[in-house]
Amino acid sequence: MGQPQDGAATAPTLDSFGAEIGRGQARTIRARWELQTVTRVREAIALDLAAREVSEQVIGEAELVVTELVTNSLRHARRSPTGPCASTGRPAATTSRSR
Known about the structure:
The chain is of the alpha+beta class and 99 residues long. The chain has helices at residues 37-51, 56-76, and strands at 26-31, 92-97. It is built from 2 helices and 2 strands; from the N terminus they run βααβ.
C-alpha cells in the first residue's frame, strides 16, 4: 500500500478484510451479513490466489465456489441486529486452504 522511491504503485499487501495477501497455509474470512459481502469475499480470495500464482482457470472456479458458499450462508442465516449471523453469533466465515 506504499509508494516506492520511483513513484510507481505497488500491489496491496492487505485485502479489504485486513489479511495479508498470499500469506499462510489457510485463510479464514469473517464477514458481516451485508449486501456487498459476497463481492468482497470473492475479490479477497481472487487476490490471494493470484498472489500465489494460481492459474486464471482455478481462480475463476474458486470465485464461483466462494460466491455460491457465501451466498447460501447469507441466505440461510438469520440476520441479527448487530450484523453477525444469528445462528452462530459470529460473522459468517469462509476458509480456503492453499497447497
